[in-house]
Amino acid sequence: MFSANYLEFLQRFNRMKTQNAKPFLKWAGGKGQLLKEFEIRLPEEVRKGLTNTYVEPFVGGGAVYFYINNQYQFDECHIFDVNEELVLAYTVVKHDVEELIEILKDVETTYLQLDTEKRQEYFYEIRNKYNEFKTSIQPQKYNKAWIRRAADLIFLNKTCFNGLFRVNSKGEFNVPFGRHKKPQILNQEILRNDSALLENTSIHLGDFSDCARYVDEKTFVYFDPPYRPLNQTSSFTSYSKDRFGDEDQKRLAGFFHELDAKGAKLMLSNSDPKNEDPNDHFFEDLYPEYTIDRVSARRAINCNGERRGEINELIITNYKTERNDLSVF
């Protein structure tokens, strides 16, 4: 029988092994720059190890998931997304990371040896093949063909313009070629660390509301929905073929209320309409009884460099915490 101190040591050691776990894809709206703001607003139950389950209904690139699952101890995690390709990629990283790495080694070696013109041809060849064989994910039917598709997704993400994932109404990846001099297509350390961290995690394809079955009073849920556009020209909600509009934001607010009634601790981030219109009370009207904080963030992806300035974003919680700066940053 192991002592409590030894078990605690093992837990700390395992977390240290995956401390470099971080997103393996670049994702528009990724939350890496806001991790400190989320950290200082975590509920005390998470800090004290009293929360058994972590749930993220819009996992996206996973910056918050990878950070929180590494820093804190959960019995289980559940990540969801409606993006089939994203669910496929997470599943492959969890179950077949070494085979994925071998494919990406060959792809990276081939690509970096080409001149710009040949790289562009190679990129569109992969993109056309990727779009031609669009997939319909059924997690219970996982097969080895997924590994090659995940490799193609990572390649396209690392070599396309601005490192985006964007699809059209047909679900086709439509980001053009990016002229990166020496893109890092393969990062073995990150992929292996991510795979290890995913061991306690179930990966789900589905709507955010599907997570309800895993939520109770000992659950922490972080919502990162597609952001409400600040104006008509700033919309970027094309992470999947389905759009996320105001009616979806309202449906999400209703679901937030439902999970609050279960006793779960909830955190949600979104854009701040007041950046453009001080009289826009959209989120205050949706979440009137909850804590709404405004934090500064920098636009990470915008084709107009002059529009990449500081803006406010919202962090909404159904609890209050003492928000003191932490020494980990």
TrEMBL record:
For this protein, the record's PROSITE patterns field holds: N6_MTASE
What InterPro entries does this protein map onto? Answer: Ade_MeTrfase_dom_2 (IPR023095), DNA_methylase_N6_adenine_CS (IPR002052), M_m6A_EcoRV (IPR012263), MeTrfase_D12 (IPR012327), SAM-dependent_MTases_sf (IPR029063)
A GO BP entry is: methylation
Q: What is its EC number?
A: 2.1.1.72
According to UniProt, the reaction catalysed is: a 2'-deoxyadenosine in DNA + S-adenosyl-L-methionine = an N(6)-methyl-2'-deoxyadenosine in DNA + S-adenosyl-L-homocysteine + H(+)
Q: Which UniProt keywords apply?
A: Methyltransferase, S-adenosyl-L-methionine, Transferase
Q: Do the record's keywords include Kinase?
A: no
**Top EC class per UniProt?**
transferase
Keyword presence, tRNA-binding: no
Superkingdom of origin organism: Archaea
Q: Name one GO molecular function term.
A: S-adenosyl-L-methionine binding
Q: Which SUPFAM superfamilies match?
A: S-adenosyl-L-methionine-dependent methyltransferases
As for family, the record states:
Belongs to the N(4)/N(6)-methyltransferase family.
Entry-linked PANTHER family: DNA ADENINE METHYLASE
Protein name, per record: site-specific DNA-methyltransferase (adenine-specific)
What organism does the record attribute this protein to? Methanoculleus taiwanensis
